[in-house]
């Protein structure tokens, strides 16, 4: 039987919780810079909730056809505490993929956040509930529950490939996936970048910052001053 497009898989591995905790103190932009600025979940996916704190957790991936949330329901049921459910619903905003009932279920399961390449509804109530939720938009039109769909298979959002168990980061600047295999090296680089930025901010505040690099860069690129 061909089950491609309608299958539920188990995660083979999952980002270590200690690494997840370390990333929570870093802005997503710093991590993105340390990945050569090539990876992102798309500028259309924005926070629905009010907080802009960094959320971090292991990806539980969901692929579904636009407007249908049957497999998303199951993903919430099998989610582990600290997971971030990432849903590729094709970016369609015709029908909402979830609302306050599913948000309540996710909170009860201890889900760290939900990211949807698609729409949600009951936005005001979800904000009140406090579930970290990112989506491309809001629609009052509800979803269907027929399938097909997949859980824990690779998904791709705006060119960013996400494997089940990868590290997911998100804050007010957007969404980023970090491969399990590269997470420790990227963590070290991002921590160093964050520390360097704090030194620069302190120098700005005390007036000792050196901005000569700007003029030097202009001259090196052939800029003419008159």
TrEMBL record:
Which amino acids does the record list as binding substrate?
99-102, 121
Record: residues binding Mg(2+):
122
State the needed cofactors, names only.
Answer: Mg(2+); a divalent metal cation
- N-terminal signal peptide: none
Q: Which InterPro entries match?
A: RraA/RraA-like, RraA/RraA-like_sf
Q: Coiled-coil ranges per the record?
A: none
Q: Does the keyword Zinc apply?
A: no
What GO annotations for molecular function exist for this entry? Answer: metal ion binding
| Record's keyword annotation contains Magnesium | yes
Do you know which SUPFAM superfamilies this protein is assigned to?
Answer: RraA-like
Keywords of this protein's UniProt record, alphabetized? Magnesium, Metal-binding
Q: Kindly give the Pfam families that the UniProt entry links to this protein.
A: RraA-like
Q: Tell me the PANTHER family matching this sequence.
A: 4-HYDROXY-4-METHYL-2-OXOGLUTARATE ALDOLASE 3-RELATED
Query: What name goes with this protein?
Result: Putative 4-hydroxy-4-methyl-2-oxoglutarate aldolase
Q: Which organism is it from?
A: Marinomonas polaris DSM 16579
């Amino acid at each position: 039987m061909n089950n491609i497009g309608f299958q539920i898989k188990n995660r083979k591995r999952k980002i270590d919780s200690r690494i997840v905790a370390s990333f929570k103190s870093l802005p997503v932009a710093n991590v993105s810079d340390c990945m050569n600025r090539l990876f992102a979940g798309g500028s259309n996916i924005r926070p629905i909730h009010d907080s802009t704190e960094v959320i971090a957790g292991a990806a539980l991936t969901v692929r579904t056809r636009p407007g249908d949330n049957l497999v998303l329901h199951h993903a919430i049921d099998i989610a582990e505490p600290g997971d971030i459910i990432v849903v590729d619903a094709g970016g369609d905003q015709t029908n909402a993929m979830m609302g306050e009932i599913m948000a309540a279920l996710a909170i009860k399961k201890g889900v760290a956040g939900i990211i949807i390449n698609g729409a949600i509804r009951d936005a005001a109530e979800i904000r009140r509930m406090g579930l970290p939720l990112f989506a491309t938009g809001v629609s009052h039109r509800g979803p269907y529950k027929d399938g097909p769909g997949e859980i824990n298979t690779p998904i791709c959002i705006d060119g960013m490939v996400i494997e089940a168990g990868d590290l997911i980061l998100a804050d007010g600047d957007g969404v980023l996936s970090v491969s399990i295999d590269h997470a420790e090296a990227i963590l070290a680089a991002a921590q160093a970048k964050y520390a360097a930025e704090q030194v620069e901010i302190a120098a700005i505040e005390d007036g000792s910052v050196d901005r000569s690099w700007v003029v030097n860069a202009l001259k090196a690129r052939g800029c003419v001053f008159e």
